[in-house]
Design brief:
45% of the residues lie in helices and 15% in strands. The protein has 147 residues and is an alpha/beta fold. Strand 1, helix 2 and strand 2 form a beta-alpha-beta unit.
C-alpha cells in the first residue's frame, strides 16, 4: 500500500484501483486496501474498489473489461507482478509492474509456495482452457465519482 500511495502522492496517477476478494461476509480485501491507502493520505475519491478480483486473472481482466483500463501499472511484489503483467500482455493489455518490497520470514516462504502453484494454474488458464473472469458486470468509469 505504501508503494501505491507513493505513486499517488508523487502525482504519477490520479486514481488507484484496488482489486480483491469479497465473496464471503467478513472478508473484504478491497475495503481493507482502501482503508490502508486513506491512512497513508490518499483521498477516498481517488480509490476505486473492485470487489470481484477473486484471483489475479480476474483482477487483470476486469481492469480492462469493467473499469475500461487498457494500459495500467500493477503495484505488488515482484513475484506477483511477473504473473499479472504476463496475463495482461497475453490479453493485449499494456501493463507494467511496480515492485513493492517482498514479504519476509515465514510469510515469504508461504508466498513462494503459493506463487509456484498460482503460476501452474495461470499457465493452464492461458494455454489450455482459456481465460475469462468469473464475473464481469456493468462498466465502471474511473473518475466518474463511482467506486
Amino acid at each position: 500500500m505504501k508503494a501505491a500511495a507513493g505513486l499517488y502522492h508523487a502525482g504519477k496517477c490520479r486514481y488507484l484501483l484496488v482489486s480483491g476478494d469479497n465473496r464471503d461476509a467478513g472478508y473484504d480485501e478491497p475495503t481493507a486496501m482502501k482503508e490502508a491507502l486513506v491512512a497513508l493520505g490518499v483521498p477516498e475519491p481517488a480509490i476505486v474498489r473492485d470487489y470481484a478480483g477473486f484471483d489475479t486473472l480476474d483482477s487483470v481482466l476486469r481492469a480492462k473489461e469493467v473499469f475500461e483500463q487498457s494500459r495500467y501499472l500493477v503495484v505488488s511484489q515482484a513475484f506477483h507482478n511477473e504473473r499479472a503483467v504476463a496475463i495482461a500482455r497475453h490479453h493485449g493489455i499494456e501493463a507494467y509492474g511496480l515492485n513493492a518490497p517482498d514479504f519476509r520470514g515465514r510469510q515469504a516462504i508461504r508466498m513462494v509456495i503459493r506463487e509456484k502453484l498460482a503460476r501452474v494454474k495461470t499457465l493452464g488458464e492461458l494455454k489450455l482452457v482459456g481465460s475469462q473472469p468469473k464475473h464481469l458486470g456493468p462498466i465502471v468509469s474511473i473518475g466518474s465519482g463511482e467506486g
